[in-house]
Amino acid sequence: MNVLLIGSGGREHALAWSLAASPRLSKLICAPGNGGMASLAECVALDQADHAAVLALCRARAIDLVVIGPEAPLVAGLADDLRAQGIKVFGPSKAAARLEGSKGFTKDLCREAGIPTADYGRFADAQSAKAYVTAAGKLPIVVKADGLAAGKGVVVAATREEAERAIDACFGGAFGAAGSEVVIEDFLEGEEVSFFALCDGKTVLPLATAQDHKRVLDGDRGPNTGGMGAYSPAPVVTAEIHDRIMREIIRPTVAALAQRGTPFQGVLFAGIMITADGPKIYEYNCRFGDPECQVLMMRLKSDLLTALLATVEGALATVDLKWRDEAALTVVMAAKGYPGSYQTGSEIRGLAEAAAVPGARIFHAGTRREGDRIIATGGRVLSIAGLGRTVGEAQATAYAAVDRIDWPEGFCRRDIGWRAIARERQA
User: Fold this and answer.
1) Contact 147, 180 (CB under 8 A)
2) Which among 24, 186, 214, 359 could disulfide-bond with 387, CB atoms 3.0 to 4.6 Å apart, if both were Cys?
3) pTM above 0.90?
4) CATH number of the domain bearing residue 59
């Protein structure tokens, strides 16, 4: 098969790495790709927002399957335009992708379907939003820009003043159109987990669990980011919790979308809080997580291309995925200043030495290749992954590779996996 992979981040590098191992693959094209993906695929400069250009590339290169990595083209309806031209595509329709494109839509759907989530309100102006915060009288409280904000449109406000500043930022244009509506919800106390499932519109196939680290600094301090590291499996998801997530959250969501005439076809990514009352959904995404995808692909033993194609063709009931027993952990290296302002253009050295660590793998995100040099081009720049018999061993592998990278302009957290490692030490 000829496969076109849309995207340029660490998630797409991990998907490209897994797809490239498939015996069913003839040609892999990544658009636009990054500095690390060229060794696995042909990288083509392409504006993913230009749907006509994507269609033209598919026709010119006889593409059999398009895999859409990021959320923005899904929310913009790229999958719909491809399907309308008879092209197979992995990724939900624009209508189903509203699960990520509008937090208010998701909250309303959960309320209608009886899916456990935090109490909330939706607001189109700052005055009514602030009045809700005052009336609620609950702190901390969570303020969210309704639309896509690259993982940065969420503030957990410890004070009413902080909540009001977050509201003003949204309506003041800090997140563009994404902040034209605001969702305010109760703070959920507990432990977060990332839960993934493939959905073909009717069948739901759960994937391995993972836990992300959203805060920028050690000890889960500082502002939220797109993710500073992840590990899999997440031991907080016991067999009982897994069953409850599927029964109370995932299956009712898929059923609710199907009943609306907008069946979900792709990968459903649920952000779950394990509270004292059980699992509750705090967000949905309509694509693989980044950096969770990296650890999932490190552990996946089955052929990814076969699984994605079965999802597209409505044949997930025939798929049985196999996973490595080892744990996987990934550490994100970001440009200093991220998630605020940061410099680009610095050279990254030592990548070959890092890749030589047994059990380690380097996934590129914000990079470009200039001859033999790798140049940083974004905020989150590299994802350094490791395997191990335990999360602790996987962590040691990943940081051994991190320590061989020569990039003074970058930084990383040094405590990725700390919750799971604490459990391992207590066992």
Assistant:
1) yes
2) 359
3) yes
4) 3.40.50.20
